[in-house]
Design a protein that fits this description.
The protein is of the alpha+beta class and about 400 residues long. It is about 25% helix and about 35% strand. It contains eight helices and 22 strands. It starts with a helix and ends with a strand. About 35% of the residues are buried.
Length: about 400
């Protein structure tokens, strides 16, 4: 009996000692974890145990709204970006005055866009001016050496040619600039500062602007936009909300050299006929009347129908037959020039009608010009001049 009691006492003692050790160990570990937690939260000690990555990652919240405007802009960019390309130029330079060694050095960069499936690329003339080598990089990042098909410096336009397969060439959609309005949304895609495929948005902030080309010859009826246009955007497209080309971005007005909210684009109606001639002839061969015109927007605002002559080129076809330009009299009052309302049997209601009508003729053709002067309708025969050498 005594032996049994002794054994039971020893067993209870062993269990008690073991339980005490286990409790002490567990409490010590808990105190240690609590201390670490406290330091982690308040003291940011270096010995803190980092939390697992998945415990700090925010979960993704669901999309609540994607507006129709956002969707349209995304679609416009994705559809048009393949038509836009990056242009790099380089030129050969000597290492020294007496050296015969030539080195190829980068000379500039800009943007351009695919005009047709034959590899015609449109850009600004000033982008490729003076270059000995031109490389065009397409949206798939393939690069192609380009040759110059032709240029029209007076319009700051040039057409390049690359030998890329047609499957890589997505021609840009072409629009119309005659009926553009101030406040209309516009989009510019280009490569500012060498950053490829950049989209900027804005509105048409003015129409009928005049800027000087690189040759000093004025470019009329230019589009002004507040869409950001920076160095490297030159030669890239200005698009309407349908993703159609309405202008070629050519320059910015900025004392700092970066976008200040005033950019200029050559209107697509002018681009279309210049590029078409360059592709066909290697130069612009348009028949000319020998006049400059008041922008159609100004004529419409004045309630006029037709093409109002602003200036008559001295000794040009119009000057030779006595057509009159807009001027001021001795009292400072504006005296309207002649308003062209027809060529042969083609009615002319605006400047674009006149440009399209002239495309049906060639330099040297004799045409009948119907015009209004002081409310009277008159007509005169005129021999068309040529843009070549003008």
């Amino acid at each position: 009996m005594k032996a049994t009691n002794i054994l039971n006492a020893i067993l209870i003692l062993i269990i008690g000692i073991g339980g005490g050790i286990w409790y002490s160990s567990t409490q010590s570990q808990a105190d240690s974890f609590e201390e670490i937690a406290i330091h982690t939260k308040y003291d940011n000690v270096k010995t803190a145990i980092p939390a697992p990555n998945n415990s700090t990652k925010r979960k993704v919240d669901p999309i609540t709204v994607v507006t129709d405007v956002e969707t349209a802009t995304i679609n416009l960019f994705e559809e048009t970006a393949p038509s836009v390309c990056f242009i790099n130029t380089s030129k050969m330079t000597q290492s020294g005055y007496w050296s015969q060694n030539l080195y190829e050095t980068p000379s500039g960069s800009g943007s351009g866009f695919i005009w047709d499936e034959n590899g015609s690329i449109v850009t600004n003339f000033h982008v490729i001016q003076g270059a000995s080598k031109i490389t065009v990089t397409l949206s798939d990042m393939s690069s192609w050496e380009a040759e110059v098909l032709g240029a029209e410096p007076n319009k700051d336009l040039a057409v390049l040619k690359i030998k890329a397969p047609s499957r890589l060439l997505t021609p840009i959609k072409v629009g119309f600039s005659e009926d553009l309005r101030v406040g209309q949304s516009v989009f510019a895609i280009g490569n500012p500062f060498g950053l490829d495929q950049t989209l900027t948005t804005g509105i048409i902030s003015a129409l009928g602007r005049e800027i000087n080309s690189i040759t000093g010859v004025p470019i009329n009826d230019v589009i002004q936009t507040d869409a950001a246009i920076n160095p490297g955007n030159s030669g890239g497209p200005l698009l309407d909300s349908s993703g159609r080309l309405i202008g070629v971005n050519t320059m910015i007005y900025s004392p700092s050299g970066a976008s200040a909210g005033i950019g200029f684009s050559i209107p697509v109606d002018e681009v279309n006929w210049v590029v078409s001639d360059i592709i066909k002839y290697g130069e612009v061969r348009k028949p000319l009347i020998g006049v400059s015109l008041i922008p159609s927007k100004r004529a419409r605002e004045a309630g006029l129908v037709g093409s109002l002559i602003l200036k008559v080129v001295e000794n040009g076809p119009a000057d030779k037959v006595g057509l009159r330009e807009t001027s001021r009299n001795n009292n400072g009052e504006i005296e309207l020039g002649d308003i062209i309302i027809g060529i042969n049997d083609i009615d002319i209601k605006n400047n674009n009608d006149l440009f399209l009508a002239l495309e049906k003729f060639a330099p040297g053709d004799k045409v009948s010009i119907t015009y209004q002067r002081n409310g009277k309708e008159l007509a005169v025969d005129l021999v068309l001049g040529s843009s070549v050498g003008s």
